[in-house]
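Sequence in, structure out.
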Amino acid sequence: MHRLFVDGGWDRRPGEVVVGGEEGAHAVQVKRLRAGEVVEVLDGCGCVGHGQVVEVSRGGRDSRVRVRVGRVEVVERFGPVVHVCSAVPKGDRAGQLIDQLSQVGAATWSALTTDHGIAEGGGHKLERLTRIAREGSKQCGRAWGLTIGGAMTVAEALVAPAGVRVLVGEAGGGPAGGVVLGAGDEVRILIGPEGGWSARERELMGGVEMVRAGPHVMRIETAAVACVVALLNAGRV
């Protein structure tokens, strides 16, 4: 099953949807979609359109796919909603982090600026991570995509919006799977750098609940994914 992502402009009703831009070019040149193929159209915000390709226009970067959507399904977000703020792994591991978070069901990811972390990124890298998140969503059929947010300091990440519970990843904390969460709850998990939290950051975290993903020290991307899986399944067994 091929899945196409639509950036806005879709009224979420049965009818024709034109997919262009980078997504359209990828569908035509890489996926080699043809008229008659059955596809799903995603908007990343809970809407899934089930339809069929009726026309493929080849034009390099201006390639487009026209889809006739016959049925529209609105899917509720899977809960609890887990937001991840983590230090950025080096090199290609950042992409692996986003791909895996997208597949396991994290709601959002934001880069966490820490005292012992190495700042990486910028606009170009965030664009790349957004593309990876989108591809991960299409691969696993997520109706609600992983959203890439702006960078935050530890102090900023510790102050969450009302109703969002804050947890900190720490080897000495309690098991993340033991956290009691309901399907309608939201939680933000902070994952630090491989150099650990600084004394200043630990002071800021005074009183915040600490959780661990497992019995061993993990790399950033492993710890983040393991914590998300544990939190999404907390209280479900």
